[in-house]
UniProtKB/TrEMBL annotation:
Its EC number is 2.1.1.244. This is Alpha N-terminal protein methyltransferase 1. Alpha-N-methyltransferase that methylates the N-terminus of target proteins containing the N-terminal motif [Ala/Pro/Ser]-Pro-Lys when the initiator Met is cleaved. Specifically catalyzes mono-, di- or tri-methylation of exposed alpha-amino group of Ala or Ser residue in the [Ala/Ser]-Pro-Lys motif and mono- or di-methylation of Pro in the Pro-Pro-Lys motif. One of its GO terms (molecular function) is N-terminal protein N-methyltransferase activity. GO terms for cellular component: cytoplasm. S-adenosyl-L-methionine binds at G78, R83, L134, Q135, Q150. Belongs to the methyltransferase superfamily. NTM1 family. It holds the Pfam family Methyltransf_PK.
Length: 261
C-alpha cells in the first residue's frame, strides 16, 4: 500500500510522493471548520464519552503522581482546536504544549485555551503552540510526563511513525508515558483517500511499537461510541520494559462496522 501511495525505488520520486501524501492530508484539514465537530468529522457529540474514558485511563496510568503535588507537563500531538488539551490534559497537567500542522486549528486552540485555568489552585495553562507536523517535530528534552497522540498518527507513514516515536522518546521524563488513542482496523489497514490517512490494526500497531523500541504498559478499549465508527483503543507505552503489563481490553463489542470501509 505504501509503495502504491508514496512510491518505492527512486529516492527522489519516493520523497516527492511522500511530501504529496502529507500535503494532501493537511490540505484536507485546512478546509475543515475549526470546531470540535469539525475535528471529529461531524461526531462532536462523542466528545464527552471520549474524554470520560481518556480521563479514567490517564488517572489509572499516572496513579499517585496526580496527588503528589508534582509539576506535571503534557504534550498534545495533532492537537486540532485544543479539544483534548482543554477537556482532559489541563485538568491534570500544570503545563500543556500543543503540536498541530494546520494554522487555523492552532490559532483557534490558542483562543480556546486563553482562559483555561482549571481544577487546581495554580491555574494550569497551555504554554507552547507549535504549528508543525509530527514527522518534522522533535520535543524538548525531558519536558513531558505524558505525550498524548490522538486521532492523528494515521497521517504518518510507517517509517515516519517509527522515526517520530524514536525522536520523541527524548521528550519524556523518566517513567513518562506515550498515550496513543486511535481508531483500530479489524485486520491489516484501511486507507482513507479523502483525508490521506491509514487506520491500522492492533497487530500492525504492535509491530510498529516494537520497531520503535516501545513497550506496552496498558491497553484499553474505548466504550460507548456509535456502532458505525471504528473501534478505538488507548495504548500506554513506555521506553523501558514495564514490570507488569496491564491489559484491560477484555470487553468485546458485539458488532463493529466501520465508518470508512
Ligand atoms: C481527527 S483530528 C483530531 C484532533 C485532536 N487530536 C482531537 O482529538 O480533537 C486530526 C488532526 O490531525 C492533524 N494532522 C494531520 N496531519 C498531521 C500530521 N502530519 N502531523 C500531526 N497532525 C496532523 C489534523 O490537522 C487534525 O487536527
Amino acid at each position: 500500500m505504501w509503495a502504491e501511495e508514496i512510491g518505492e525505488g527512486e529516492a527522489a520520486e519516493a520523497q516527492y510522493r511522500t511530501k504529496e501524501w502529507y500535503n494532501k492530508g493537511v490540505g484536507f484539514w485546512e478546509k475543515v471548520e475549526a470546531s470540535v465537530d469539525g475535528v471529529l468529522g461531524g461526531y462532536g457529540h462523542v466528545n464527552g464519552r471520549d474524554v470520560k474514558d481518556s480521563n479514567e485511563f490517564l488517572v489509572d496510568i499516572l496513579g499517585e503522581r496526580l496527588t503528589q503535588n508534582r509539576h506535571l507537563v503534557a504534550l498534545d500531538c495533532g492537537a486540532g482546536v485544543g479539544r483534548v488539551t482543554k477537556n482532559l490534559l489541563l485538568k491534570h497537567f500544570q503545563e500543556v504544549d500543543l503540536v498541530e500542522p494546520v494554522s487555523h486549528f492552532i490559532e483557534s486552540a490558542r483562543e480556546n485555551l486563553k482562559v483555561c485555568g482549571q481544577s487546581k489552585s495554580v491555574a494550569n495553562h497551555a504554554v507552547n503552540f507549535y504549528c508543525i507536523p509530527l514527522q518534522e517535530f522533535t520535543p524538548e528534552e525531558g519536558r513531558y510526563d505524558v505525550i498524548w497522540i490522538q486521532w492523528c498518527i494515521g497521517h504518518l507513514t510507517d517509517a515516519d511513525f517509527v522515526a517520530f516515536f524514536n525522536r520523541a522518546k527524548v521528550g519524556l521524563k523518566p517513567e513518562g508515558f506515550f498515550v496513543l488513542k486511535e481508531n483500530v482496523a479489524r485486520n491489516g489497514f484501511v486507507l482513507d483517500k479523502e483525508d490521506h490517512s491509514v487506520t491500522r490494526s492492533d497487530t500492525y500497531f504492535r509491530d510498529l511499537f516494537k520497531q520503535a523500541g516501545l513497550y506496552l504498559y496498558k491497553i484499553k478499549a474505548q466504550k460507548g461510541f456509535p456502532q458505525e465508527l471504528f473501534p478505538v483503543k488507548m495504548y500506554a507505552l513506555t521506553t523501558e520494559p514495564p514490570a507488569i503489563m496491564q491489559d484491560v481490553s477484555h470487553e468485546r463489542r458485539s458488532k463493529r462496522r466501520t465508518k470508512k470501509s
